[in-house]
Structures are given as C-alpha cells and as structure tokens.
Amino acid sequence: MAGGRARRLKRVITARRMLLGPDSGNDQDERIVRAPPPRSHMWCTRLAGAAQAMRDDMGDVLRWPHEILAREEDLGRARTALAHEAFDIAFAEGRALHEDAAVAYAQRAHGERRRPNAGWESLTPTESEVVRLVAMGLTNKQVSAEILMGAETVKTHLSRVYDKLGVWSRAAISSQYAARSRVDATD
Predict the structure, then answer these.
(1) Which among 108, 131, 160 is the end of a domain?
(2) Are 177 and 162 contained in the same domain?
(3) ∠ at Cα 7 (4, 8), nearest 5°?
(4) Among 74, 108, 142, where does a domain finish?
(5) Which residue from 18, 1, 11 is spatially nearest to 103, judged by alpha carbons?
(6) In sequence order, what are the residues at sequence separation of 6 or more whose Cβ sits closer than 8 angstroms to the Cβ of residue 27?
(7) Is the distance from CB of 152 to CB of 50 less than 8 angstroms?
(8) CA 178 to CA 47: how far, in whole Å?
(9) Max Cα distance, the chain (Å)
(10) How large is the angle between the packed helices 140-147 and 125-135, nearest 10 degrees?
(11) Contact predicate 24/54, CB 8 Å
C-alpha cells in the first residue's frame, strides 16, 4: 500500500515537472512554479497542495535544505503571481483532493493522445474520473467540486463519454462501469 501511495505522489510531482520543464541540473529539487501564465501558477499550486497533503499523510518530509529552500522560493513566486488569497485557495483545493483525484488532475493535460475513437480505451483520464464519480452516484455539481472543474464542463465530459461508449444515460454508464470493474477485479 505504501508503495502505491508513493507512486501516486511521484505522478503528481512528475506532472508538475512536465509543465515546468527540467530543473537546472538538480532533479531532486522540487521546482513548483517556472511558467509565467497564471493558469500554470494555479495548476502547480494545486499540485503542490496535493503533494503536501500526500506527504503529510505518509509522514514524508523534504529532508534536504536545498529542497526546502527551492520549494519555499517557488511557493513564494506562486503566491506573488496569484495574489495571496488565490494562492491560499488553490493550495487548499489541492490539499483537499483525494489521492486518485490528484493524480487525475496532474495527468489531465498529459493524457495519451493516440486513443481509439470509441469504447472504454478512448476515454481521457478526466473522462474516466468523471465516469468513476458518476458511477458512485455523484451529481454533476458534486463531481465538479471533487475534481476542480465547472459543472458545465462535467456535463461536456459526460456528453463525450455518452458518445464514446454508445450510451445515453447516467444509469447506463454506472451499469457498464460496474460490469467493467468486476471484470478488472477478476483479472
């Protein structure tokens, strides 16, 4: 279990690094904010919050002074770029994400692009997460709060899922998801 959680934390950190680019020679250093667009600062701040929550939960800490200093400098730049209140909100949103949701959020912009046009394999990581949450019985508004997107965006993802899976209702999605989960559990 601990190994799986560590791998999920690594995915969150790796996705953040993919956006920011390689560090200046020290890949142990967790650089959070290098890209100037505000969305990048917001995205990275949420990932920093998610990574911190996962570290706290696992009892993991940054041990090296250069890691701590770099993290604090980068968080400071993000706080300045976003303004204090927006930074605090984004960091708290990241901390509130469930581990699986944090990984899905981290991979949202980096999903595999060579997918089939239909079927389960055609779903993006975000669409798959929306399906999982809908199958749990969540409303669009609840799904949107869980994975940090608007309810209308959830509706758009569901529309695409309906087309890709050839279904026309939430109940059909839930039924297919449950059947698929049973098959995956026996493999």
Answers:
(1) 108
(2) yes
(3) 90
(4) 108
(5) 11
(6) none
(7) no
(8) 30
(9) 54
(10) 130
(11) no
DSSP 3-state of 124: coil
pLDDT of the chain along its 187 residues, tens only?
Answer: 456 666 666 666 665 554 444 443 333 333 333 333 445 788 888 888 988 888 888 887 777 788 788 778 888 888 888 888 889 998 999 899 888 888 777 776 554 456 778 889 888 888 999 999 999 999 999 999 988 888 888 998 999 999 999 998 999 999 999 988 877 666 5
pTM: 0.48
Domain that holds residue 139: 114-186
How many structural domains comprise the chain?
A: 2
Q: 161 and 80, same structural domain?
A: no
